[in-house]
């Protein structure tokens, strides 16, 4: 299985982690529910940083990710997260099939 991988990292502001995670989960749920090209969207809390959150997203291809960028649930996330967290650089990768 191949795919387009997005790794987006955020640093929650002091006292804002729970609110940020709720907002992030709503975005992830919207992606998985309404985007046929979104295969996976995990919201993870990194162990090596207090309040550091990593999104692990897999899309069918770059076009599916571009479609994600136009969704209402992502617009709500983009509007809400700046008060709750700082975004770190986003990284992109290709999921490689085994063998």
UniProtKB/TrEMBL annotation:
GO MF entries: monooxygenase activity
Organism: Roseomonas nitratireducens
Residues of the ABM domain: 4-95
Source lineage: Bacteria, Pseudomonadati, Pseudomonadota, Alphaproteobacteria, Acetobacterales
InterPro entries per record: ABM_dom, AI-2_Isomerase_LsrG, Dimeric_a/b-barrel
Annotated protein name in UniProt: Antibiotic biosynthesis monooxygenase
Pfam family, one: ABM
Sorted UniProt keywords: Monooxygenase, Oxidoreductase
Source taxon at top rank: Bacteria
């Amino acid at each position: 299985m191949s795919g387009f991988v997005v790794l987006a990292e955020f640093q929650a502001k002091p006292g804002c982690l729970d609110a940020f995670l709720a907002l992030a989960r709503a975005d992830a749920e919207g992606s998985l529910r309404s985007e046929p090209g979104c295969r996976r969207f995990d919201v993870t809390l990194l162990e090596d940083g207090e309040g550091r959150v990593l999104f692990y997203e897999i899309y069918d291809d770059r076009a599916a990710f571009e479609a994600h960028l136009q969704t209402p649930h992502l617009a709500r996330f983009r509007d809400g997260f700046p008060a709750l967290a700082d975004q770190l650089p986003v990284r992109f990768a290709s999921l490689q099939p085994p063998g």
